[in-house]
Every structure is written in structure tokens, then in C-alpha cells.
Amino acid sequence: MPTDLTTFSFLFLAALTLGSGGIVAFSKNIIYSTVALLGCFLGIAGLYIHLSADFLAAVQILVYVGGTLTLILFAVMLTSRIEDIRTSNTAVGRGAAFAIVALVLLLLGKVATMTPWPAKDRPQMPATAKLGHAFLSEYLLPFEIGSIVLLAAMIGAVVLARRAVKRDWEKH
Amino acid sequence: MHVSLVHYLTVAAVLFGLGLFTVMTRRNAVGILLGVELILNAAALNFVAFEHFVAGGVSGQVFTVFIIILAASEAAIALAIVLQVYRGYRSILSAQLTDLKN
């Protein structure tokens, strides 16, 4: 890929990510915030492709866009009285939050620019096969524990969200 | 312009700042959750960027997969809790949820 095209597409994806993130942070309507999260996730997936993490880009779209975002949209539709936009996504303490975020960003920027990272440009290469080998050898135990965590979270969500229904024979 | 590590760190830092701002200013519990998702994505992007430019190998991507796993389970549990709270209070504004009992 020629360098100009790479730069252009990086800038486009970064603008997509940060613009959508800005809508998430500043929109007054929680539906807009939630849908803007979609653009943010897509931008991040594109940046993963830039960083030669092709498998992660697919996982990002499948899990975040297909799963998490749909879940959050359900929660928004089920809970907030969305017709009452003014109360659904109000924000408080913007001045103080601005100050704290500015301080944190200043610190992060200082660390990121002052540290001499031993960075070098690597060629783009597919990583899926290496990732699979890593998961089935070096990171096998965390991988399996991750599946147990997902199972526990699924059961926990079902238990938490169900309505307690009493059957007839339980009422005595 | 040559895209290097610093550019990715900048994107991730600004995204983290936006997420932090969302978490601090929103009063809606689901809004706070949106901010947490932004923060998690910023951290994951940093992991992949450092792996690509500094560390090499695939360990950064492995950690990003774990972040995605934990974010998915966290979203499921948090939204179940939000639904239950909404049933009890008819509201999910964090300032009004002050009781532990009843």
C-alpha cells in the first residue's frame, strides 16, 4: 500500500473514531450516544487492520458491534424514558470534568512523547495463525478461564435479569 | 506524514479522555457504561499499537482479546443489573440510587 494512501486512511479512521467518541461524550440524546458508539467501534476495527491485527478487527466487529452494542441498545430502549430526551442523558459537573480530563491528557501526552520508545516499523503481516498458536500453547489456561468467565457472566445475567415468577404450587 | 506509534497513542489518549469525561459527567447508568466501553477500547488500541511497533509477537493481541472478553461479560452483567434497578426505582440516574436496602 502506498504511504499516502496509508496516511489518508489512518487519518480517516482516526477522525471517525474520535468524532464518534465526541458524539458519545457530548450528545444530549442517549440514542445518538449509543449509535455513535458504532462508528467508534468500526474506526477502532479499521485501526486494528492498520496494525496488522486482522483477526482482532473481525472480533471487534463481531463481538462489539454485533453483541455488546445491540445489548446496550436494548438496555437503552428498555430503561430510559427516551421520549423525554432532556432527562435521559443529562450531564453534570462539566467544568470540573474538563479540568480533570485535561490534566490526565497532559500527563499522558508528556509520557507518550518524552519516553524514548524503541519503536520500529514492521511490515504488515497476517497474525491470525500466530494468535491461534499462542492461545493453544502459551495462553491456554487464561483462554480456558476466559470461557468460564463468559459462561459465568451469561448465567449471572440471566439470573439477575429474570422476573421472579411464582408458580401456583410455590405460593403456599 | 508518516504514521508512527505516537499517532496511535494520541488517538488512544484522546479516546480515553472522552471516555473519562463521559463516565464523570453522565447521570444515566447506561451512559456511564458507554464511557467505560470507550476507555476499554482506548486501552485495547494501545495494547495492539505497542505490540505492532515495539514488542513484536502476538502477546498484545492476546491481551486485547481478553479485554474484549471481559468487556462483553461486563456489559451483560451491568445491563442485567441496570434492568433490575430500573424495575425497582423506575429510574437509572446514578444520583438517585442511594439505598442499599429496599
| CATH structural fold name of chain B | Helix Hairpins
CATH class of chain A: Mainly Alpha
What order do the SSEs of chain B take from the amino end to the carboxyl end, as H and E? HHH
What gyration radius of chain A follows from the Cα positions, in whole Å? Answer: 22 Å
How many E-type strands of chain B? 0
Helix content of chain B: over 70%
CATH architecture of chain B: Orthogonal Bundle
Main beta-sheet strand count, sense and barrel state of chain A: none
Largest interface: A-B, 84 and 72 residues
SSE string of chain A, helices as H and strands as E: HHHHHHH
CATH C-level of chain B: Mainly Alpha
* Category by helix and strand content of chain A: mainly alpha
**Structural class by sheet pairing and helices of chain B:** mainly alpha
Oligomer: heterodimer
End-to-end separation of chain B: 59 Å
Question: How would you describe this structure to a colleague?
Answer:
The complex is a heterodimer of chains A (172) and B (102). Chain A is mostly helical and 172 residues long. Chain A starts with a helix and ends in an 11-residue tail after the last helix. Chain B has 102 residues and is mainly alpha-helical. In chain B, α1 runs antiparallel to α2 and α2 runs antiparallel to α3. The radius of gyration of chain B is 17 Å and the shape is elongated. The relative contact order of chain B is 0.13. The chains are: A mainly alpha (172), B mainly alpha (102). At the A-B interface, α1, α2, α3, α5 and α6 of A face α1, α2 and α3 of B.
